[in-house]
Amino acid sequence: MLNDKSDMKLDAIIVEDSRDNLEVLQHFIKKYCPQLNITGTAATIEEAEKLIRSENPDLVFLDIVLDGRKSFELLEQLESESGINFMIIFVTAHSRFDFAEKAIDYSAVGYLTKPVDKDKLKFAVSKAIRLHPHFSLSEIRDTLSQLENKKPNQPEFFKIIKFNQVIKTVKPEEVSHIVAERDISIVCLTNGDKEKSSRSLGFYQQELENHPGFFRIHNQTIVNIRQVSEINRKDNLVILRNGKKLNCSRRMGRALYDYLASRKYD
After folding, report:
1. Which side of the chain, N or C, has fewer Cβ within a 10 Å radius?
2. Domains observed in the chain
3. What is the pTM of this model?
């Protein structure tokens, strides 16, 4: 449990069903968050319930989807029996959750999207250090409901910032993927055209944060999910509808795989 002394570490556990994502999060916490003491990990709702009861953690990193089940089942079970007296940082593979950051802030410590960004992790943990776990199950459940049902505001157009002070606009669905080329980007359109942009891939990642249709699969590539025909985790490949094969990193490929596997038809 939390201690009044500011120099005491917080005991934390990680509830994550992906071994790859678990190892990444453990590594980042060990390297960047010395304020935390990881006392255990769990991969299922049943394992998590036992671990929370035995370790009585201050903080729980909680994957929203666990083997096809929603983590609020775990929260409901704990609340009905002993109450929730720990802080929560939600972890998710769903990029569409980016829009709900403010809602999360009112009901839990925060959230992290996969692949985990170390700076966002450090920010969430620093917030946990400052807060005391006075969060109700109803607030957490409301947050999960908002994340599942509320649609983010999507941009009406995609801007390609070219050279010589020229900006070209296209519809987001007309973008197939974006590739980094040194310090510029190549925007590949579904009609086969390629547009050079003077901006970096990092610029476009920030621009597309609130758009659920785009996913970074490699440090050099962002892909439009609706253009993905197949993902091959064995060979670390993403195959587009036009037959184009794109390399994806092992970690980001798993995150995309998890996202597509848990996504509902729309």
Report:
1. C
2. 10-149 (3.40.50.2300), 158-262 (2.40.50.1020)
3. 0.52
Q: Tokens representing 49?
A: 């319930």
- For the cut 90, the answer to whether the pLDDT of residue 106 exceeds it is no
Which of the pair, 50 or 78, is modelled with greater confidence? 50
Q: How much is the pLDDT for 103?
A: 34
pLDDT at 146 over 50: yes
102 CB-near residues (< 8 Å, 6+ apart): none
* Cα–Cα separations (whole angstroms), residue 176 to 12, 186, 188, 234: 40, 11, 6, 23
> Cα 195 from chain centroid?
29
What's the CA gap between 120 and 202, in Å, rounded? 15
Q: Where are the alpha helices (DSSP H) in the chain?
A: 19-32, 45-55, 72-81, 101-107, 118-130, 137-149, 201-207, 250-262
Number of Cβ within 10 Å of residue 265's Cβ equals 3
Digit-coded pLDDT (tens) for 174-188: 999 999 998 899 999
The residues, any chain, with a CB within 8 Å of residue 246's CB and separated by 6 or more, are 177, 217, 218, 221, 223, 237, 238, 239, 240
205-256, pLDDT tens digit by residue?
878 765 668 888 888 899 998 899 999 888 889 999 999 999 998 877 877 7
Say if residues 217 and 248 touch (Cβ distance below 8 Å): yes
Say how many residues make up the chain: 266
Transcribe 80-139 into DSSP letters: HHT---SEEEEEES-GGGGGGHHHHHHHSSEEEESSPPHHHHHHHHHHHHH------HHH
